[in-house]
Design a protein that fits this description.
Layout: E1 5-6, E2 11-13, E3 16-19, E4 29-36, E5 41-42, E6 45-48, E7 62-64, E8 70-76, E9 85-89, E10 95-96, E11 101-102, E12 107-110, E13 118-119, H1 121-132, H2 138-148, H3 161-164, H4 171-190, H5 192-195, E14 196-197, E15 200-201, H6 203-215, H7 217-225, H8 233-247, E16 272-275, E17 278-281
Parallel strand pairs: 4-13
Antiparallel strand pairs: 1-2, 2-3, 3-4, 4-8, 5-10, 6-7, 6-9, 9-12, 10-11, 14-15, 16-17
């Protein structure tokens, strides 16, 4: 639950502080803080995406993440909660603290407007769900993603799964999220030549990429929780399908509707069924979700 404490000079809210200094003359300034991660990402580009194009444009507040993926953005107080925070992992510069190595291919993660505390592949998918279905609430998007993972109703899908995987009631679930996020980030980085253009992003291809991930989320989670890597039969087939799909998305096209890839389904049975003495991922999202048996 967000907590707001008001004094005569400063307002504090989860991951956000606002005051009256640090902005231009007569303009109240605010500070937005949080963490960016696949694993924690150091020296990543973090910015407030005012025009929703997933890339930094002149005039948008920008900073670099520090150790532990921590970032702090100075923004106008009028922008608080209005625009999404975007993180770009920069090839050859951004360090993934899970590996201690710089990322080989750049990729972009983000979060819905107003969500700042933890920006990750999970928050990116939640943003994608809500963007494709304007009537979908945050609660519905969270429920859908939780059910795609086959997780209990009290697991927070926007929580810091890196810290959560170390201890606590849902340690095993956050560990699953962490492993799945690694595979999601790998998928996103692999498609960078099709999705990224230097520091730019082809928005339609980015949305199509996230749509493919959404359609196959139960299978990706199942792949990760069973200790299977990117070379498993399912992941190999999915990677090839995703690449072919993105190649067919035209560059520079107008806005394309991806709502079919982000259907508003919140029933657990839509994603999993109990078969062969274990929960198996289903394929009821439709529109391209793959069913690959092992």
């Amino acid at each position: 639950m967000l907590k707001i404490v008001v004094t005569t000079a400063v307002i504090f809210t989860a991951g956000i502080t606002a005051g009256c200094s640090g902005g231009s003359a007569g303009t109240p300034a605010a500070t937005v803080s949080g963490v960016v991660a696949d694993g924690y990402l150091r020296e990543a580009e973090v910015f407030l995406d005012r025009n929703g194009n997933y890339q930094w444009d002149a005039g948008e507040p920008k900073t670099a993440s520090r150790a532990g993926g921590a970032y702090t953005l100075s923004i106008a107080s009028s922008d608080l909660g209005e625009y999404p925070v975007v993180c770009r992992a920069v090839a050859g510069s951004t360090v993934d603290e899970d590996t201690g190595q710089t990322v080989q291919n750049g990729y972009v993660i983000s979060a819905p407007a107003g969500v700042t505390a933890f920006v990750s592949p999970m928050s990116s998918l939640i943003r994608g769900k809500m963007a494709a279905n304007p009537d979908m609430t945050m609660a519905e998007a969270m429920t859908q993603l939780r059910n795609q993972f086959n997780m209990p109703s009290d697991v927070d899908m926007l929580a810091d799964y890196v810290a959560g995987s170390q201890s606590g009631q849902h340690q095993i679930h956050y560990q699953t999220m962490r492993e799945t996020a690694r595979q999601m980030a790998t998928l996103m980085a692999e498609q960078a030549p099709l999705v990224m253009n230097g520091s730019g992003v082809n928005v339609n291809r980015y949305r199509a990429m996230m749509g493919e991930i959404n359609l196959n989320m139960p299978q990706i989670a199942d792949n990760a929780m069973n200790g299977l890597g990117m070379d498993s039969p399912f992941m190999t087939a999915m990677r090839n399908e995703m690449h072919a799909t993105l190649q067919n998305v035209p560059i520079g096209a107008g806005f394309m509707n991806y709502s079919g890839m982000f259907r508003n389904m919140t029933s657990h049975s839509a994603f999993w069924n109990y078969t062969g003495n274990r929960w198996q991922p289903g394929g009821m999202m439709g529109g391209g979700g793959m069913m690959v048996t092992r």
